[in-house]
Amino acid sequence: MLRALYTSSTGMMTQQSNIDNIANNLANVNTVGFKKARVDFQDLMYQTIKPAGSSTSAGITRPVGEQLGLGARVAGVTKMHTQGSFMQTGNQLDLTIEGAGYFQIDMPDGTIAYTRNGAFTKNNEGQVVTVDGFTLNPGIVIPDNAEQIFIGQDGTVTAKIAGEVDPADLGQITTARFINPAGLHSIGSNFYKESAASGAPLVGVPGQESLGAIAQGYLEMSNVQLVEEMVNMITGQRAYEINSKAIITGDEMLQTATNLKR
């Protein structure tokens, strides 16, 4: 009886983690560039009472064994880096990547972070920055007298300068991709850091070397699907209830056994 109590408790704990993850996905349904996560489960160790293939007293080889599982655990939480839908904004500094790749951002500590959120703006020095004020890498500076900004699919940045016929070349945006994007370390604010699991970044020109092209005037929305998350929530809630019912059943069986003496 006690085995059932402990086994069911592990099921309740894993479903609690599942619901926590679903809640985070739903909370970020309108977060630009957000990538949903999925909780992966594993069964725990087994108690072998009779091994398969052992011989019985009659000398017959046992075709099946007798093993009792001891529950489940969370094996990991996997980020799903699938493409989200695009939203047209018309803003000249709103960018999205059509395919693989991440924008590179200079962080205050001197490291580089990576993001799919292309909602950029200008600071007081004309630098292209995120909403947090972190500069895009490589740095792009927009002149004060720039009337219109053009960003090509390959990341080239030009601007129409007042009083000049030819557009001015302002620089080149490069993006990075990873062999294992799911291994990136989330640090919040739509930023990721590379890790040993993700591998080193492969930096290149958008549209080349398996990197997605850049689209100006668009933003990539969250890849969270509301209907899918609601179904997962219902499934997780019912699994939590079933495990709690198993604990109640085990407790009732123990109570019945205890009352036999009366």
Write a structural description.
- The chain has 262 residues and is an alpha+beta fold.
- It folds into two domains: 2-81 and 224-261, no CATH class; 86-220, no CATH class.
- 23% of the residues lie in helices and 32% in strands.
- Strands 7, 8, 11, 15 and 18 form a five-stranded antiparallel β-sheet that branches.
- The mean pLDDT is 91.
- Strand content is 25-35%
Helix content: 10-25%
What about the largest sheet?
5 strands, antiparallel
Structural class from helices and strands? alpha+beta
Determine the mean pLDDT: 91
Q: Regions with pLDDT < 50 over 5+ consecutive residues?
A: none
Overall shape: it is: elongated
Sum up the structure in keywords.
23% helix, 2 domains, alpha+beta
Ordered list of secondary-structure elements with their pairings:
Layout: H1 2-27, E1 37-43, E2 46-50, E3 66-69, E4 72-79, E5 86-88, E6 95-98, E7 102-106, E8 112-115, E9 121-122, E10 128-129, E11 136-137, E12 146-151, E13 156-161, E14 168-172, E15 175-177, E16 185-188, E17 191-193, E18 202-204, E19 213-216, E20 218-220, H2 226-258
Antiparallel strand pairs: 1-4, 2-3, 5-20, 6-19, 7-8, 7-11, 7-15, 9-10, 12-13, 13-14, 15-18, 16-17
Helix pairs in contact: 1-2
